[in-house]
Amino acid sequence: MILDDLVATTRQHMVARQAQVSLADLQAQIAAQPVRRSFDVAQLMRQPMTVIAEIKQASPSKGQIVAPTAFDYQQIARDYTAAKVDMISVLTEEEYFKGSLAILTAVAQTTPLPILRKDFTIDPYMIYEAKAAGASAILLIVAILTDAQLTQYLALATELGLAAIVEAHDSAEVERAVMAGAQIIGVNNRNLKDFTVDFANTQRLRTSIPAEIAVISESGIKTRADVAQLEQAGVNGILVGETFMRAPNKQAMINELRGFKYDQN
Ligand SMILES: O=C(O)c1ccccc1NCC(=O)[C@H](O)[C@H](O)COP(=O)(O)O
């Protein structure tokens, strides 16, 4: 199962980073950070049709999405900022997505927007890393965490001033996310066993999630019709990666998904 491989490689890379930068070093970096604008990300995600635009070079399901030479993540961050997206998601997983914390740090220095560290969070160390790199939010995937870890990581994120998108794939995981106190739930439309995409998953699960919890629909969103279908299902926002990464004119594509006519001014 791909998630098992992702967790195993994430742990290997994290152990290597821990040998270079201790938890105490990260805490010192956080203490020395200049005061950055703080965001109420949960409140932001409750607005109607929030757009989270993702920066990623590759993925397990699609392989290489953008050639390494064309992966100008700072320019992409500027394009997303110009399009006034609500948050930028940066993949930092190194093996399958070819991401890094260095990319997140550079993006954080390029944009005033809040940034989601999109990774397979498996240890408190990674939450400190996210904060030190300049993220405003982290991803917690229910399928790879115990209930105790979910509760502990949510509390640590809050303590560090980070929001958390808690990702769930089915009703049992939604229940665990709600019990742990999630304020934002990400519903993944992609089945991670066979990589098929099914928006009906978000539509089904939205009905079981309390209205005060923001629901973000993730993966496989390509057209205005997809977004309209998700809007009708009552989701608060969308997280889009591949469609934006492949779009030559990102601002036009973002506006198209929002249902706006593109205006260069
Ligand atoms: O995208 C994958 O292949 C994948 C495989 C295993 C675990 C996670 C995976 N994707 C992470 C994501 O959450 C997506 O990058 C994100 O939802 C955006 O999806 P898309 O718009 O389809 O690029």
TrEMBL record:
Pathway: Amino-acid biosynthesis; L-tryptophan biosynthesis; L-tryptophan from chorismate: step 4/5. It catalyses: 1-(2-carboxyphenylamino)-1-deoxy-D-ribulose 5-phosphate + H(+) = (1S,2R)-1-C-(indol-3-yl)glycerol 3-phosphate + CO2 + H2O. One of its GO terms (molecular function) is indole-3-glycerol-phosphate synthase activity. Its EC number is 4.1.1.48. It comes from the Bacteria. Keywords: Amino-acid biosynthesis, Aromatic amino acid biosynthesis, Decarboxylase, Lyase, Tryptophan biosynthesis. The keyword DNA-binding does not apply. Pfam families: IGPS (PF00218). CDD domains: IGPS (cd00331). It is an enzyme of class 4 (lyase). InterPro entries: Aldolase_TIM, Indole-3-glycerol_P_synth, Indole-3-glycerol_P_synth_dom, Indole-3-GlycerolPSynthase_CS, RibuloseP-bd_barrel. Residues 3-257 form the Indole-3-glycerol phosphate synthase domain. Belongs to the TrpC family. HAMAP family: IGPS_B (MF_00134_B). This is Indole-3-glycerol phosphate synthase. It comes from Periweissella fabaria. The gene is trpC.
